[in-house]
Write a structure and sequence with these properties.
65 residues; alpha+beta; 4-stranded mixed sheet; 1 helix; elongated
């Protein structure tokens, strides 16, 4: 069905990870055919954080507290 709306980063799913390996695995899967809004890095508010859109345009914030 055709519609006039799409996903935007104004709504993101937020995931807290328990390890760097978990964060890397999740980001790797979501980044395939997606696009980073903030690549994985230490941004001061988190040890490791990534914000990206998956291949469907859904926005994800992946965090290692």
């Amino acid at each position: 069905m055709h519609h006039a709306f799409s996903f935007t980063p104004s709504f993101s799913l937020f995931v807290d990870c328990s390890s760097e390996e978990e964060l890397d695995r999740i980001v790797g899967v979501l980044a395939k055919d997606g696009a980073f809004l903030m690549p994985t890095d230490d941004y001061g508010f988190s040890r490791r954080f990534a914000w990206l859109n998956d291949r469907f345009g859904v926005s994800w914030q992946i965090n290692l507290p």
